Amino acid sequence: MSTKEKYLVFSPYRSGLGNVIMSYECALALSYITNRKLLLAPTLHITHICVNAKETGHTFWDLFDESITRQEFDIEDYHSHELFQGKFEQMQTYYSWFENLPSIVEDCYSWKPGLGEGVYHMTGSNICFVNDPTQYQDEDFRSFVCNRKVIDVNCSQQYFLFENNLFQHFWYLIYPGRSIERNKLKDKINRVVRYKQKFYDMFMSSIMNHIGAYNAVHVRRNDFFIQFGYSLQSVDQGDKLLTQLLRVFDPKKPLYIATDETDLSFFSPVREVFKDLYFIDDIGIQLSKLERAILDQIICSKADDFYGTRNSTFSKRINVMRGVEGRVVHDNTGINFLDDGDRELEEGAFPWNGIYNKEWAWNRSSYLQWTQENVS
Question: What is the fold of 197-341?
Answer without folding.
Answer: Rossmann fold (3.40.50)
